[in-house]
Amino acid sequence: GIAAGAAIAGPDDELVINGEIRIVTRTEAPAHLEGVLDEIRSGWTFRTEETQALEMDDFENPGMVFVEEAMSVWDTAEGTAGKACADCHGTAEESMLGVKAVYPKWNETAGEVRTIEQMINECRTDRMGAQEWKYHGLDMTQMVALIASVSRGMPVNVAIDGPAAETWEKGKEIYYTRFGQLDLSCANCHEENYDNYIRADHLSQGQVNGFPTYRLKNAKLNALHDRFKGCIRDTRGVPFGIGSPEFVALELYVASRGNGLSVEGPSVRN
Amino acid sequence: MKKGALGALCLLVAAGTASAGTVAPGDVKMDEYGFVPVPLTDQPGDPVNGRKIAGTKSLGNCVSCHVIGEMASDVPFHGEVGPELDGLPGRYPEAMVRGILVNSKNIFEGTVMPAYYKVDGFNRIADGFTTKPLEGEIEPLLSAQQIEDVVAYLMTLKD
């Protein structure tokens, strides 16, 4: 196999944001991928130099505008309890540090694996008396972008054992299942064919460490489950629902394939 | 519908979506290697139309995964998921090429290449790219005549 990390990294494998946040974009695959992948790579390593450059400076990264937006929402009281996120959590920089790196995560009270989106909506409905946000709507996705941004540079490290194991297995099964009339699985494109072109698209490993992603193609901030949906649609298949147990399980599994890469969101993709 | 030894006769009486002179997807006769020696229609394939199907996104879209050298000038962005198709007739007999198109998985086990003339065994199949469940019958990705047209085109790709 290929040796990991810095030893083989070329110039365009170096992602340093704002001259200070070092992002690991290539590293040794986690143990559970033994015999499957030697090296894991962020989607950033598959993009053109121009697209890559946009992520090196927050003033150039169009996704950071949404982070700014979310910062003011964070401080704004909403709902019948008259509370803002900040009232309970203090600053996002401190309270949310490391959160994106470990989600989706087993939630003891709920007795299931939860995503950040689900945690946020629980706070909104149960603790703030506010309306829940649409799972992949802009309010939600930009808040997730803010929560991701404060953990940039930290290694993704989702737990796949213990109570999360069952959900992880379910996600793994979905990852290797072929869908639609084109009969393709996630693995067919992102494990067997990464680095190959499929028509005009340079296939990546389909890692999720960069989510939410700002895509130049649709000029918006993209939620992860929307991407899952698009990929299954492209097989001429029927996707699972946004926020469904299947997509939560898939998210946990795919996130675990990136254990060791840095949290990178909001990232820039094409 | 009848299969096996009567297959050739069935060419003339095929029912369902298939018209007279056309083998329906469930009735395609293949040998133990997945080769399909008998054409799916009684019309000879049209290589000009086959070329169009292979290069068009909404039709065969073969170039999304295969380089076809001859098309480089007018069809951009050839993929590299599958092998280059140049020189194909020098490598494979026509029956094999037809078999690959009908259901490549019979020939290349576990391949990522879709089956173009198959209507069963799919998981969560949608109505095209709509994400909505398909109601009604599954149409194969290409019609019998389109398969024959693509086969005829591929057989022109001599080195």
Q: How many helix segments of chain A?
A: 11
CATH class of the domain at 47-155 in chain B: Mainly Alpha
What is the first-to-last residue Cα distance of chain A?
29 Å
Percent of residues in beta strands of chain A: 5-15%
Rg of chain B from C-alpha positions? Answer: 16 Å
Q: Count every beta strand of chain B, where a strand is a DSSP E run of 2 or more residues.
A: 0
* Reported CATH architecture of the domain at 47-155 in chain B: Orthogonal Bundle
C-alpha Rg of chain A, in Å? Answer: 18 Å
What is the global morphology of chain B? globular
What kind of sheet is the major sheet of chain B?
Answer: none
**SS content category of chain B:** mainly alpha
Instruction: List low-confidence stretches of chain A.
Output: 1-11
The helix content of chain B is: 25-40%
Protein name (chain B): Sulfur-oxidizing protein SoxX
Domain Cytochrome c (chain B): 45-158
GO molecular function, one term (chain B): electron transfer activity
Keywords (chain B): Heme, Iron, Metal-binding, Signal
Can you describe this structure?
The complex is a heterodimer of chains A (270) and B (159). Chain A has helices at 49-54, 64-74, 85-89, 92-95, 99-102, 116-127, 138-149, 165-175, 186-190, 224-233, 245-257, and strands at residues 15-17, 21-23, 26-28, 39-41, 105-107, 112-114, 197-198, 201-202, 213-215, 220-222, 267-269. Chain A has 270 residues and is an alpha+beta fold. In chain A, α2 crosses α7 (138-149) and α8 packs across α11 (245-257). Chain A is globular. Mean pLDDT of chain A is 95; it is low at 1-11. Chain B has a domain at 47-155: Orthogonal Bundle (Cytochrome Bc1 Complex, Chain D, domain 2). Chain B is built from 5 helices and no strands. The longest helix of chain B is centred in the C-terminal third of the chain and has 11 residues, at 144-154. Chain B is globular and about 40 Å long. Classes of the chains: A alpha+beta (270), B mainly alpha (159). The A-B interface holds A 177-184, 188-189, 192-193, 196-200, 203, 229, 232-234, 236-239 and B 57, 61, 63-65, 76-81, 112, 114-115, 122-126, 128-133, 138, 141. Chain B: Keywords: Heme, Iron, Metal-binding, Signal. Chain B: Residues 45-158 form the Cytochrome c domain. Chain B: InterPro entries: Cyt_c-like_dom, Cyt_c-like_dom_sf, Thiosulf_SoxX. Chain B: This is Sulfur-oxidizing protein SoxX.
